[in-house]
């Protein structure tokens, strides 16, 4: 069984209130290492068998047409997870 990961982020010019809220909370927890936080979405797509180029193409199409809103979001990653990552 294979897995494909799809990451979607708000476009840079789009406000990210959830990321801003997390960014404001971190210093209150003593975590001051980060200059900013942006929050996006992550999808794990499971396939029967190994991940092929055709399956990655289908995942890219799904990412562009269903998993993201192209007006306000960018698809930033579509790739197969290696077996070590897939078990985490």
Structure in words:
The chain has about 90 residues and is an alpha+beta fold. It has one domain: 2-Layer Sandwich (Mth169, Chain: A), CATH 3.30.1280. Helix content is about 35%, strand content about 25%.
Annotate the secondary structure layout.
Blueprint: E1 2-10, H1 17-28, E2 41-47, H2 53-67, E3 73-80, H3 83-86
Number of helices: 3
Q: According to CATH, what is the topology?
A: Mth169, Chain: A
Topology pattern, helix = H, strand = E: EHEHEH
CATH homologous superfamily heading: Phosphoribosylformylglycinamidine synthase subunit PurS
The domain count comes to 1
- Tell me the distance between the termini: 15 Å
Total strands: the figure is 3
Helix content: 25-40%
Helix-and-strand structural type: alpha+beta
Largest sheet geometry: 3 strands, antiparallel
Low-confidence stretches: none
Provide the gyration radius in Å.
16 Å
- Looking at the overall shape, the CATH architecture is 2-Layer Sandwich
Strand order of the largest sheet: 2-1-3
Beta-sheet strand percentage? Answer: 25-35%
Q: If you average the pLDDT, what whole number results?
A: 94
Shape call: flat
Q: Determine and state the CATH class.
A: Alpha Beta
């Amino acid at each position: 069984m294979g897995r494909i990961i799809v990451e979607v982020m708000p476009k840079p010019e789009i406000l990210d209130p959830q990321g801003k809220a997390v960014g404001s909370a971190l210093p209150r927890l003593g975590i001051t290492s980060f200059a900013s936080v942006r929050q996006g979405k992550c999808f794990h797509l499971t396939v029967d068998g190994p991940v092929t180029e055709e399956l990655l193409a289908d995942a890219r199409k799904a990412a562009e047409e269903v998993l993201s809103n192209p007006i306000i979001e960018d698809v930033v990653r579509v790739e197969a997870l290696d077996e070590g990552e897939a078990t985490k």
